[in-house]
From TrEMBL, chain A:
The chain crosses the membrane at residues 20-39, 60-81, 93-110, 152-174, 194-214. InterPro entries: AA_ABC_transptr_permease_3TM (IPR010065), ABC_transp_permease_HisMQ (IPR051613), MetI-like (IPR000515), MetI-like_sf (IPR035906). Keywords: Amino-acid transport, Cell inner membrane, Cell membrane, Membrane, Transmembrane, Transmembrane helix, Transport. This is ABC transporter permease. It comes from Billgrantia kenyensis. Gene3D superfamilies: MetI-like. It is found in: Cell inner membrane; Cell membrane. GO terms for cellular component: ATP-binding cassette (ABC) transporter complex. Belongs to the binding-protein-dependent transport system permease family. HisMQ subfamily.
From TrEMBL, chain B:
The lineage of its organism: Bacteria, Pseudomonadati, Pseudomonadota, Gammaproteobacteria, Oceanospirillales. This is Arginine ABC transporter permease protein ArtM. Residues 17-214 form the ABC transmembrane type-1 domain. It is found in: Cell inner membrane; Cell membrane. Its main location: membrane. It comes from Billgrantia kenyensis. The chain crosses the membrane at residues 12-41, 53-76, 195-217.
Length: 232, 226
């Protein structure tokens, strides 16, 4: 059924690249978010300032410009650095790496603000009470703060991931063979633009629906203690 | 960094600012006109209207904007009846196709923003208005809408900023907005860092100004509250 003039399996391969791109960007982006939130809440003004510059830049510049900058500018920078280090062969930056860098940095910028808000939302009294019980800072972070941060941050992080999932389509502009690029190739051969772009749209819609489902399950799990208490 | 090239590229990039601004303002206006009836249909419509609104919102929020632009610009030409229709002179121009896609996209997001704003109005106020003898229309115009606007302003501000950023996709259908001009200049000069930084700075200035404008408006509207 999913033949599409023989291009069905190509679209599926592209979908797999899209999924990989989105998932790797999610993992790295969560790392940037944690780092950014820690910097924003730190006592050092310089760290706070650096995190502020980071979130302002990546939330205020279009993702397409970020992708183009990292791909075309990244080649120039990487080669200049390599030449300084005495390596004089040309180094190519792969479209996949550029896409992951752009999308995870963007995710990190939005995630920083979400995590910062979530950390601040944990009542101070709980941390003080944990300390009074003799918990170390590490135990407090692991047992008291993080589980609640996770609960507060999940809706925002889920929405941001949905945005990133859709923005993977932009990486087709620099020639990565993901779903959108494969679709354009298929359109070039078959001259059936509506059929193929609609198919791509439906695949993205399916991916979105799956992410929404997983997000709801995770939220239910993260909220299980809270729901049980309100039911009493 | 070649600073003189950055300064030289400025006039060309500023030409692109006009295209970007035109697209954003027009798409936001048209999108808002789509969003209000869609939000109302989703909240108060009959089963048919509601399901149309829900599917429209789901489709345009669940698929990439790039796919939507390509569906309108390349996709519609697949059908002979579109190419023979009176609308073809419009539908074959990238400018109008980008505008149509942007408007439909922001319309779907804005509809959800407005829906949230309307739902945030306490139901007691609506019941009180009805008890005073207001018709549903008067209740909406005098009681619900003014408050819904205020509730939705922060989220709508975000949507406006996202629209400015999303407008960079116009460059994918050959339009010479800020990104389009920048991509051409990069191809001419092979100086991606200088040109793209300049474009990024212009976008930053636009999103920052817009963000401050929305904040100022929120403060003004909040002044009415005790």
């Amino acid at each position: 059924m999913f033949d599409l003039f023989g291009f069905g399996h190509l679209l599926l391969q592209g979908t797999w690249v899209t999924v990989q791109l989105a998932l790797i960007s999610l993992v790295l982006g969560l790392g940037f978010s944690l780092l950014g939130a820690a910097m924003k809440l730190s006592d050092f003004r310089l760290l706070r300032f650096a995190a502020g510059v980071y979130t302002t830049l990546f939330r205020g510049i279009p993702e397409l410009v970020v992708i183009l900058f990292i791909y075309f500018g990244g080649v120039v920078i990487v080669n200049a650095v390599a030449r300084q280090l005495g390596y004089d062969r040309y180094i190519d930056v792969s479209a996949f790496a550029a896409g992951v860098a752009a999308l995870s940095l963007t995710f990190g910028a939005y995630g920083t603000e979400i995590l910062r808000g979530a950390i601040l939302a944990v009542p101070k009294g709980q941390v003080e009470a944990a300390r009074a019980c003799g918990m170390t800072s590490l135990t407090i972070g692991w047992r008291i703060v993080l589980p609640q941060v996770w609960r507060y941050a999940l809706p925002g992080l889920g929405n941001t991931f949905l945005i990133i999932l859709k923005e993977t389509a932009l990486v087709s502009v620099i020639g990565l063979d993901e779903l959108m690029r494969r679709t354009e190739v298929a359109v070039g051969y078959t001259k059936q633009p509506f059929t193929f772009f609609l198919t791509a749209a439906l695949i993205y819609l399916g991916l979105t629906a799956i992410v929404m489902l997983v997000q709801r399950k995770l939220e239910q799990r993260a909220n299980r203690g809270v729901i049980a208490r309100s039911a009493v | 960094m070649n600073v003189s090239l950055m300064i030289e590229s400025l006039p060309a990039l500023l030409q692109g600012v006009w295209v970007t601004l035109e697209l954003v303002v027009a798409a936001l206006l048209i999108g808002f006109c789509i969003a209000l009836p869609t939000a109302l249909a989703r909240l108060h419509g009959n089963a048919l209207l509601r399901s149309i609104a829900v599917s429209y919102i789901f489709f345009f929020r669940g698929t990439p904007l790039l796919v939507q632009i390509f569906l309108v610009y390349y996709g519609l030409s697949q059908f002979d009846f579109v190419r023979e229709s009176a609308l073809w002179p419009i539908l074959r121009q990238p400018y109008w196709c980008a505008l149509i896609a942007f408007s439909l996209n922001t319309g779907a997001y804005t509809a959800e923003v407005i829906r949230g704003g309307i739902q945030a109005v306490p139901s007691g106020q609506i019941e009180a208005a009805r008890a005073c003898g207001m018709t549903p229309t008067t209740t909406f115009v005098r009681i619900v809408w003014p408050q819904a606007l205020r509730h939705s302003l922060p989220a709508y501000g975000n949507e406006m900023i996202l629209m400015v950023k999303a407008s960079s996709l116009a460059s994918t259908v050959t339009l010479l907005d800020i990104t389009g001009v920048a991509r051409n200049l990069v191809a001419e000069t092979y100086m991606p860092i200088e040109i793209l930084s300049m474009a990024a700075l212009i976008y930053l200035a636009m999103t920052f100004t817009l963000g401050q404008g929305v904040l100022a408006m929120e403060r003004r509207l909040a002044a009415g509250r005790s």
